[in-house]
Amino acid sequence: PADLLSLQEHGLDFQRLLDASAYKEMYRQDMIRWGEEKRRADPGFFCRTAVEGAAQPVWVVSDTRRLSDVEWFRDVYGDVVQTVRVVATEETRKRRNWVFVDGVDDAESECGLDQGVAFDWVITNDGDELALGEQLEPLLRSLRGRL
């Protein structure tokens, strides 16, 4: 929701913000700053926005960025929350055109969950489809068992 809300507030091109283009990088620090202002005023702002109007038996909320986001979901939904961390090696990320930007990629918005969260599931996505499937199958079985 942060990208959509920032788009609405600042007239940005949402489709161009979804890729790894120079366009996104040009606005990335401003979007982070805008998001931080919203969170300081209301720590649950983005979480509530993400679930607003949603009613399904299983939700997948991607791209939480901070411990406060995880805590919000756990406080509101309790033990049904399952946290999943997807990781990739730095080498894989570079092959996917990621380039570290000082002041952005080491900010809380990018690494706020690197410590302090005991994830229920950790999935490695380094491009091996078979290995990815083998990791996802137990997660999917677990989720189906909760329906």
From TrEMBL:
Primary location group: cytoplasm
GO biological process: cholesterol biosynthetic process; isopentenyl diphosphate biosynthetic process, mevalonate pathway
Subcellular compartments: Cytoplasm, Cytosol
Enzyme class: transferase
Family annotation (InterPro entries): P-loop_NTPase, Pmev_kin_anim
GO cellular component, one term: cytosol
Superkingdom to which the source organism belongs: Eukaryota
Claim: Calcium is one of the keywords in the record: no
Pathway(s): Isoprenoid biosynthesis; isopentenyl diphosphate biosynthesis via mevalonate pathway; isopentenyl diphosphate from (R)-mevalonate: step 2/3
Keywords of the record: ATP-binding, Cholesterol biosynthesis, Cholesterol metabolism, Cytoplasm, Kinase, Lipid biosynthesis, Lipid metabolism, Nucleotide-binding, Steroid biosynthesis, Steroid metabolism, Sterol biosynthesis, Sterol metabolism, Transferase
EC number(s) reported in the record: 2.7.4.2
Recorded GO MF terms: ATP binding; phosphomevalonate kinase activity
Keyword Chloroplast listed: no
Name by which UniProt lists this protein: Phosphomevalonate kinase
Native source species: Corythaeola cristata (Great blue turaco)
